[in-house]
Write a structure and sequence with these properties.
single chain; 87 residues; mainly alpha; 4 helices
Amino acid sequence: MDNLVAQVQTYLQIYDPLGMGELAPLEALYGPVVSEIVEKLRAVQSSEEAAQAIHRVLYLTYGNQAGPVRNYADLGRDLFKLVHQGA
């Protein structure tokens, strides 16, 4: 589990979907939500659902800074593969 959380954290830091990397350390932005995102990713059935789940967690935490869900398609695809193909 810790390895998967670390991998998801890395993906979030690389993609930086909030676009706030210049304003705060990425570990501080995504660290508090990464476990919840992993939990949600385990329950989804498609990369589209993964994108929606990631967006939902970030939106509930950071509000409008999360942007539109369509911006999460690539991240959702990559994290869906990571979680469901056995990281």
